[in-house]
Amino acid sequence: MRCTSRPLAWALALVLAAGSGTAPALAATPPVSVGAEVPLYDVEMVVFRASSVAAAEDWDVVPPGRGFGASPARPGDAPEVVRVLPSSEYRLDGLVRRLRSSGTWYPIAHAAWVQTAPPWGTHVGLPLSAIGVNVPGLSGTVYLEKAPLYMHLGVDLSLQAGATTYTINEMRNARANEKQYFDHPAFGIIAVARPIKRDNE
Predict the structure, then answer these.
(1) Mean pLDDT for each 10-residue chunk of the chain (201 residues)?
(2) pLDDT of residue 188
(3) Strands laid side by side in the 126-127 sheet
(4) Which of 23, 140, 173, 180 might form a disulfide with 107, Cβ 3.0–4.6 angstroms?
(5) Is 1 helix (H, G, I), strand (E, B) or coil?
(6) 45 φ, ψ (degrees, to nearest 5)
(7) Residue 1: what pLDDT?
(8) How high is the pLDDT of residue 99?
(9) Partner residues linked to 170 by β-bridges
(10) Cα(143)–Cα(60) distance, integer angstroms
(11) How do beta strands 138-146 and 151-161 pair?
(12) CA pair distance 123, 165, nearest whole angstrom
């Protein structure tokens, strides 16, 4: 089930079609050494909240997760953050600026990092703390899994606003450099991932 507030969805569509203030930036971290044979992925994510949420519907009801599947997770190594990237390497700054200038959406987190990825179906993700995100009220996990044809990008994030907690829980196929929008009337996530070409490839 996808929770979609039509006025907010249209407003966001117009903002995104047009192209950051910026969301909180992160300090870079030194790279972690991994073997040259291990595939690496560059991931960037922007989290933003709505300026207001319609009171006509109970948006704090948590919808069932989509794309994670009902079967037990497959075995696989946990992902590893190789490096948290500095704000100078962000590629979604223009989108963040458009969100902020819209007056409808307010960026609350912006992060980019390099990571390894377990196979599709492993369902082991990275907590926000591992990618340097520490925003009051925002918690959860980001997932990136590899498969022969696609990457699989997912989130299980919650935003607490007063006494209400809003949740987005979804996994989907993703092509390289293809922006994925995870939607909820109260907040949203835009994420993009791409494989990094290694010297041995």
Answers:
(1) 44 46 45 72 96 60 54 76 94 94 92 95 93 96 92 94 90 93 91 83 48
(2) 94
(3) 126-127, 138-146, 151-161, 164-174
(4) 23
(5) coil
(6) -140, 140
(7) 36
(8) 92
(9) 66, 155
(10) 23
(11) antiparallel
(12) 23
**75 CA to centre of own chain:** 23
**Distances from the Cα of 191 to the Cα of 19, 73, 110, 111, angstroms:** 15, 23, 10, 10
Alpha helices in 18-135 (DSSP H): 93-102
3-state secondary structure 83-136: EECCHHHCCCHHHHHHHHHHCCEEEEEEEEEEECCCECCCCCCEEHHHHCCCCC
Tell me phi and psi for residue 11, to 5 degrees: -60, -40
Residue 193 identity: A
In the block, tokens 């922007």 appear at 46
Q: How many residues does the chain have?
A: 201
Look at the pTM and tell me if it is higher than 0.85: no
- Region of 9 on the Ramachandran plot (φ > 0 left; ψ -120 to 50 alpha; else beta): alpha
**Residue 37 carries which side chain, given as an amino acid letter?**
E
Tokens 């960026």 belong to 107
Helix (H, G, I), strand (E, B) or coil at 113: strand
